[in-house]
Specification:
Layout lengths: L2 H15 L3 E2 L2 E2 L4 H9 L1 H4 L38 H10 L14 H13 L2 H5 L18 H11 L3 H4 L31 H10 L15 H13 L8 H13 L4
Antiparallel strand pairs: 1-2
């Protein structure tokens, strides 16, 4: 057994032994807690603070659940994600990061671990259930959509951060602590389809310089921009973080 495996076993034992006792018996931990300990704690930490035993192996740190702040959401800027947002990130993973798909979990396990993760942050208890920003219906593909999208890219001044050719090297990029994405590289964390791109544009990414463009672009402009960004992407690559994520999934998770 490796040192990291031994550490995970010790963590699981500590968490289970710390469960409340009734009449001298250790109460069975909730399904959500069991799923979290067995599948999530190695990266996200036993307290959900993103400081699991595997965290140091990733360039992009695992999410700190205690803060209750999420970049990949369908809700307005600054708001909490919906349960469906969290389920999508769990089941599909976040491409390009160490958060690999957890599609081996049952629907009941996914919903249970979502409730457990939400319990780690007081933000969920203090806020009303979030509602997603409606994504406008996708119009049929039309000639000139990509060319129009390039004009929307210029109109919205996306190049100031992402650069004229969308490679993340705009004039402001050097002054930003969190660097703009190279939009020509794939995959995107939130998904690379035009619909995924529209969702990212209208919600923004909390905790980064990427703002929400909700109500700043009309529906047609949103879809044209999304189709333009989709058109400039290269073949999806596998990042070092993804390779590490799959390594820890194989060695620490009970996958069916």
């Amino acid at each position: 057994m490796s040192s990291s495996q031994a550490a995970l076993v010790a963590t699981v034992g500590l968490l289970l032994s710390a469960a409340p006792q009734v009449a001298g018996q250790v109460r069975e931990p909730s399904l959500g807690r069991r799923v979290y300990v067995e599948h999530c704690a190695v990266c996200h930490g036993d307290k959900g603070d993103g400081r699991g035993d595997a965290a140091e192996h990733f360039a992009t740190p695992p999410r700190d659940f205690t803060g209750g702040r999420y970049k990949i959401r369908s809700t307005p800027s600054g708001q909490l994600p919906t349960d469906d947002d969290l389920a999508r990130s769990i089941v599909r993973g976040l491409p390009g990061t160490g958060m690999v798909p957890q599609d081996h979990l049952s629907e009941a396990e996914v919903r249970a671990v979502i409730e457990y993760v939400k319990s780690l942050s007081p933000r969920f208890a203090a806020a009303p259930p979030p509602a997603p920003v409606p994504i406008p219906p996708e119009p049929p593909p039309a000639d000139g959509s990509v060319a129009r999208g390039r004009k929307v890219y210029e109109k919205a001044d996306c190049g100031e951060c992402h650069g004229r050719e969308a490679r993340g090297d705009g004039p402001s990029a050097k002054d930003l602590k969190i660097k703009p994405a190279d939009l020509t590289r794939r995959p995107f964390k939130g998904g690379s389809s035009p619909r995924d791109i529209v969702r990212a544009v209208i919600t923004g990414f909390d905790g980064t310089p990427m703002p929400s463009y909700h109500l700043l672009l009309d529906d047609g402009e949103l879809w044209d921009l999304a189709r333009y960004v989709a058109s400039i992407g290269g073949a999806p690559g596998v990042t070092p973080d993804e390779r590490e994520g799959w390594h820890f999934a194989r060695t620490h998770q009970r996958r069916r």
